[in-house]
Amino acid sequence: MPENKKRSSGEKIESALESIQEITIGDTPEWGARSAEQFLRSVLSETDLFPCTFGVAAARKKTLRLGYVDGTDRQDDWSRLPDLLRRYLEEYRSLSKETSLVVLFRPEKEPLPMDAYRERFWSVLRYLVAKDSQPWPADLPADPDESMWEFAFGGTPVFVVCNTPAHDRRRSRRADQFMITFQPRWVFEGLEADTPRGAAARRTIRSRLRKYDAVDPSPFLGAYGDDDNREWRQYFLEDDNNPAAAGEHCPFHTGAGAPVRSEAKAGADWTVVVNGDGQYSVWDAARALPRGWHAVGQPDTREACLDRIAGLWPDPRPQLQRGAR
């Protein structure tokens, strides 16, 4: 019997792998098939249970959708993303309540620092809103500091999750490349925290998180609509449970209301940038970033940026020489 069970598990994974083209929206770049296979094997493992049971069910039922962005930080690289999301949102209700769109970005040769991935994530969301042909939903708060706020695209509220190669202890948010998952708010209807199904799902997910991650579940994981819950804090979880790392204000704003961010400082004309080799510098915030460099955090004074670099980059030697004796 155990042998048959193992074979059955393997067959489920192989069936999912065979359906990669079927569940893909848009073109598949040369690296896409391998990245999709790694992702699906991780989600469908029956020996190392992935915490998000909704994602596991979607992968098994083939109601999950995959998309690819053949680039990393340049907005030109992201140009296909709005269409991928738009096409998914046109069909998601016909798929299943257990569905999501997973977008894989081109793998990088070397992982970037967490700050760079965080800034990229929020930049992508701001880019999507700028490219959205529909206005922000009138019945959805524009201020991320409200408990009923959620990201939206094409008039649809969407919960968003980011996974990165920089995550280590929080394995549930780790991926071999930068990855964003979009889940329409609709899929959570009937799974509210005060419903039996919703309460059971949360217990199962939290139990799996404790076994899967090397860090306790984030204190930011909450229920939509609760007074003390802020959805944006769940989108990009840090590798530890230090609340200061996420910042006090959401880096995102909709354009439908006042931007939610700290007041600009006088002389905040500079920004910290990092390249693929993990080297940091300061850059004029008004100028376009050079190719291969990524902004880290919000603009600040030059002195503040230099102080931040001192903390982020304790070893300025080239990456290959670090740790050499």
UniProtKB/TrEMBL annotation:
Source superkingdom: Bacteria
Database matches in InterPro entries: MbtH-like_dom, MbtH-like_sf, Uncharacterised_YqcI/YcgG
Gene3D superfamilies (UniProt xref): Structural Genomics, Unknown Function 30-nov-00 1gh9 Mol_id
MbtH-like domain location: 261-311
Protein known as: MbtH-like domain-containing protein
Organism of origin: Streptomyces triticagri
